[in-house]
Amino acid sequence: MVDKTKKRYGVVLDAGSSGTRVYIYRWDESSIARVASSSVPALPELETKDKWNMKVHPGVSTFGEKPDLVGPDHLKPLLKHALKHIPKHAVPETPIFLLATAGMRLLPDQQQKDVLRNICSYIQSETKFSLPDCDVHIQVIPGETEGLYGWVAANYLLGGFDAPKDHDHGKGHHTYGFLDMGGASAQIAFAPNATEAEKHANDLTLLRLRTTEGLPQEYKVFVTTWLGFGANEARRRYVEDLEESYAIDGILEVPDPCLPTGLRINFDGTIISDDGPSASNHYLRGVGKFDECLRRTFPLLEKDVPCLDEPCLVHGVHVPAIDFEVNHFIGISEYWHTTHEIFEMAHKDKAYDFNTYQNRVKEFCEQDWSDIQRGVKHHDYGKADEKTALEVCFKASWLINMLHDGIGIPRVGLEDTNVSDHNGTKEVLQKGKDKGFLDPFQAVNEIKSTEVSWTMGKMLLYASAEIPPASDDDLPVGFGSNEPGIPADFQYPSGGRLQTIPDTLGGSGQSITDQIHDTLFHSDAPHRLPGFILFLLILIIATFCLCGRERRARLYRSIVPGSSPSHAHAFSSPSTPKLHAPLSFFNRLLNGRKPAALHSRDLEDQRLYDPNDFELNDLSDDEGLEADKAFAHSTNSSRPASSHGRTSPRIKRHSPTGSPGKLRPAAIDRAGLVVRTESRESLVGSTNGRSKSKSRSGSPSRGH
């Protein structure tokens, strides 16, 4: 019989700007993994398959104004696909995360919240996936977090974590840098060399993993993001600049050097047919000049923005100096698609050669658009369609500028291929195979037949955190500021404290006060406000218990309308019997004193008792002691009389006319709660002839 607990599953939905892709991962349960692992410490082995992945378009950010449709119109096929590949018995134990990136970061705050709330409620109502906390499992993650997850995934697949000796880059360095570019943002993550790490220690992120043996692994990584520097956002800024420069009154055609010759498109990117009208008064016309395209995209790097913390790369953002002798970068997403889909016809594992790549881009982009259309139709460029073909010239120029002028990647192959008659890319590819990703930059899509995605880094942290530590002193898995122990912003893979989301374009994070306020009063989670009310109730009770007996008595008299010492007896009157039980409970809780047990007949005869027959707290110390003794004797109780200074009920003397005398002011005992009173008939006899020895067989003393 197969043990169904041996395999664990996890689902991550990558909600990007252009679409959402579902990823499914599987790994051995921690105890099985520990037994199966070799003597060499290794991280959990995650398994995924291409058929387990699926993407839908467009992105969740397009549902900002219609959040109620994000479930049925967007998530439904993704969830159906995930449930198809995960065994039914494993679904309730399978965590699901939807982590939105740059596209959602561009939405207004309230629209973000509305979309995320609808996503969470839809998943919870339509599936049985493990989703205990919407704020943790369904969120917009900062670009830095996305970059760190990508760094983890790349190094995990390359083997830098498990076999550091096989990846020695020199100077004790064995990890790879990570570059990612999506539609709206770009990220960089790397471990600086020892000198830079010491110099910029406060800028690093501390990351902790755990092997299947329960042993910790710790890394210090620099990671940053550039919001608005993804390929699509860069293109939008580029078009706006063209429009401001050329689209003046009377000019319909705006020349675009980044478009093939003869291509006309509207400013929204839609193609204008040869005989069709433009959707607006002006449009973009391709002129196919790639050198000019490179020059016009360079200013988009915004390298003229002041650098407040040297050194800086793009947009004045601080980045420690990169040592390319030991920092070898892996580029994914647009870095792969833009260098391979057109210019290598989607062939795998092509090394990046600056000179060969730039020559191929120039040759392609200076063609006439009609020739490119024929090539697309005949699949000369692999699976690329017309939209990919018309966008690739701008993206290629942006990528070249970002890599070499922005980040500073050396222009590999520039000299070698100028004097070679052979295919430069093939030459560099062979060198790459011999060296093993040791060039300064290598664009990849898959490593070891597995797609490189930051979602794998997220799930690896989750699987790693499930492994019990080898020592009780080991620190938890997760990441946070580069500080000893557990920093205040430490993030746990399955929940816990969440770091503030920084404004990557120069602003500051949200204050802790604002976070608490938003969590309590603006959170979309329905349990927030009731939980807050319950917390306030507990706080009030605790304060009431700690404020002292006299203060509690005064507090009661101040908040109960019409209350006075003469009205405190109302709590024990026959008209309010239901209040007696909870008050007795609180009296025992606060005083640590058990009330004398009552016979059921006493409770039934409450209607015969006159609560005005008693007064409280009107005894001197001696009188109180005598009254306690008399009370204990009359009830035949084995409980000793109250200690010196304790107050006890005292029989009130009647006036000569027989009418009840006035109650003394103290109706609340020193514990601050009303004491239940009984009639003097049940204690010392009755004026109507009741026997003084009325049966109390129900009391503890009577049982003996």
UniProtKB/TrEMBL annotation:
Keywords: ATP-binding, Hydrolase, Membrane, Nucleotide-binding, Transmembrane, Transmembrane helix. One of its GO terms (cellular component) is Golgi apparatus. ATP binds at residues 183-187. It is an enzyme of class 3 (hydrolase). Residues 633-646 have a biased composition (Polar residues). The chain crosses the membrane at residues 529-548. Pfam families: GDA1_CD39 (PF01150). Residues 632-704 are annotated as: Disordered. GO terms for biological process: CTP metabolic process; UDP catabolic process. Belongs to the GDA1/CD39 NTPase family. This is Golgi apyrase. It comes from Cladophialophora chaetospira.
